[in-house]
Protein: Anaerobic ribonucleoside-triphosphate reductase activating protein
Amino acid sequence: MFNSLTPQIALQEVPGEVSLLFSITGCDVGCKGCHSVELWDANYGEPLTQDRYLAYLEQYLDFVSCIVFFGGEWQPGSLIPCLALARSMNFKTCLYTGRERVAAEIVAHLDYLKTGEFKQQLGGLASPGSNQKFYDLNRKQIINYKFIRE
Structure:
């Protein structure tokens, strides 16, 4: 089981979706310039028990369309059941990771995937020169262009 901060509703992390974000603690990527360094501490936040997670999904069932995990891929035994439960309730799923690759058994439970560590000199997804990639896995497309504002 991993720890999570209290989830938040967001409109920008997944284009076209209203998302419920779970920030998972214990990130070991350690991107220079990270805007969420508190997530590096695995003891930060509260345990995301199955009961607690299910209660959040039920609470937001009529309000959000996508469940997003910021991290958690380092504990596939905890992440995969969360993704599977969300999909069984007809939510789309997304993972934001600083890694370049994610295990196939995790990807099998995702609709969207953001990869790549944050590199300040290249910028995030809204930067045309970003090293980060945002995938629509169902359409098999990289959709970074949806984040870039003219």
Summary: The mean pLDDT is 93.
